[in-house]
Hints:
Oligomer: single chain
Amino acid sequence: MILLSMILSQDALSNGNKEDTGYRMPPPEVMAIVDAAPTPAVTLSPDRLVMLLLERPNLPGIEELAQPELRLAGIRINPVTNGPSQPRFVTGLVRKEMQTLDEIAIGGLPEHPRITSPAWSPCGRYLAFLHTEQDGITLWLADVSRTVANRLGDFHVNDAYYGGSIQWRSDSGGLYVRTVPKDRGEPPAAPLAPEGPVIQENLGRTAPARTYQDLLQNRHDEDLFDYYF
């Protein structure tokens, strides 16, 4: 990243055009290094007969980094999607047979996959996963044996809290899903003026204590926590 910054700075100085303030692309050789896809992550089916390759992008794009963020009770979420802030997405699923090493890509995925939370069914035939869209998170199911995926239901998943948004039944016959209520309404608006002063207490002694980030600071933070979680 230091090499990339030096190239961009030198190019900007040599150009001299103050009106051109957009992003500049580095030489193709540098782009090939920065954009090179990392080694896929892997997950094995419960019976260990199938390996699923989880393809990942190298670096998040500017649009991902510019997404809004709320910091509530030590957890950072995207209020637009009701999911985690800046998650690392999976962009492709590939089935690999452990005996033959044959590879087949899972079809039926969204046009630009942004997959998180893959979860095998106990029987090993299905894979449930979440897909982050512009306005929320949807639930999808892949039939790994048939290498095809489809969206399930007409709702958005509440993935604000770490893990547990989807859970398989023990017989693989269904999923328990934490969803966003359709009648939830708009998020609580911030008050124009505080309800009262900020009060802090000092017990009069010094003691080592763990520090915690992003604690709830006021009643409005509590309302936001209740709304999103």
